[in-house]
Amino acid sequence: MSAAWTIAPVGLTPLVRARRVASPGAAAAARARPSSSGKAPSGRLFLGRPAVGTFGASVRRAATTEETRSPWTDPAPPPSSAWEPARSDWQPPWVRRALLGTAVVVAAVAYIAAVSVHYTEAMAADVMDVNEPSIMNLKLKPRTQEVILETKAEHINEDFSHEDLVGAIYTEGDLRGSDFSGSDLRAAIFSRAVMPGVNLEGADMSNSFLDYVVLRGSNMRGVIAREANFVRSDLGDCDVTDADFTEAVIDRYQAIGLCDTASGTNPFTGVDTRDSLGCERLKRYEGFNKENSKVAVSKGSGTWGGAAN
User: Cys-Cys link to 8, which of 43, 134, 138, 257 (CB 3.0-4.6 A)?
Assistant: First the structure.
């Protein structure tokens, strides 16, 4: 008894794998007579003569057909015969879903951790700058309070000169005419405070919050206000000679007003005051009809009737 068979090559794809699996009813279809060339047809099982006994039963169980199966959704098929071992790379669908979910969670946690580390380092750098002495070498009085919280407090014409007010909070306070000259005001918060005419000469105001603050007519000569926030603040008639406003947030129309009188260079940072305000790129709005100083309106024109020339 002689037998010969060939198995057609099976291609693999990422999600769909062609597999030869058991098909007990296909034994008869799998048998074929030898071709004239003496070779078995590709992909079929060829037997030279009918199989008998135990060997024949094994051969019948080994008869195969092509079947497409997804390794991600279908359960693992049983071995097609005693000659084919069980698949070692197969996993139940719930295991694959659990592994995929775990990978997504790990990636998300890693991303959040990286962002948190970056944010923590940035915050630590800012805190470190505040804790270090000011570059202005200020002569300060000993600080008596660790936390200074003066929200909505009234301090009119009071003396705060040469004080250590780092991180102090004076939100919505009334500080009209007070003296903050030579003080360390880094990271101090004056949001919505009323403080026209205050003296801030020679103060370090880096990273301070002065948004929605009335500072009209204040003395800001020689101050360092790097990265300070002046959003919606009134800075009219302020003296900013030798001041440094590098990267400070100032409304455009307020910066234009400061540029009208800005001059000098800060002695500690070496920054030109006009450069720190960006005066060269700031221009006043001149209107859409600057060539004609007047617009002629004839009598009866417009919906309101106009006026006589």
Answer: 43
- Helix, strand, coil content of the chain in percent (nearest 5): 25, 15, 65
* Integer angstrom CA distances of residue 304 from 97, 289, 297, 300: 74, 22, 11, 8
pLDDT in tens, 159-186: 999 999 999 999 999 999 999 999 999 9
Listed residue (132, 167, 172) closest to 151, CA to CA: 172
Euclidean distance between CA atoms 163 and 145, whole angstroms: 11
- Residue ranges matching CATH 2.160.20.80 in the chain: 133-284
Tokens 């197969």 belong to 90
What is the identity of the amino acid at 125? Answer: A
Q: Tens digits of per-residue pLDDT, 247-298? A: 999 999 999 999 999 999 999 999 999 999 999 998 877 766 666 656 565 5
Q: Is 302 helix (H, G, I), strand (E, B) or coil?
A: coil
Give the residue from 24, 30, 21 showing the smallest Cα distance to 86. Answer: 21
Dist. CA 183–CA 201, nearest whole Å: 9
Fold adopted by 133-284? Pectate Lyase C-like (2.160.20)
Task: Give the burial class of 124: count Cβ atoms within 10 A of its Cβ; 0-12 exposed, 13-18 middle, 19 or more buried.
Answer: exposed
Q: What is the 3-state secondary structure (H, E, C) of 52-64?
A: CHHHHHHHHHHCE
- pTM, full prediction: 0.56
Q: Cα separation of 187 and 181, whole Å?
A: 16
**Three-state secondary structure call for residue 111:** helix
In this predicted structure, what is the pLDDT of residue 130?
Answer: 72
Of the candidates 232, 220, 221, 217, which has an alpha carbon nearest to the alpha carbon of residue 177?
217
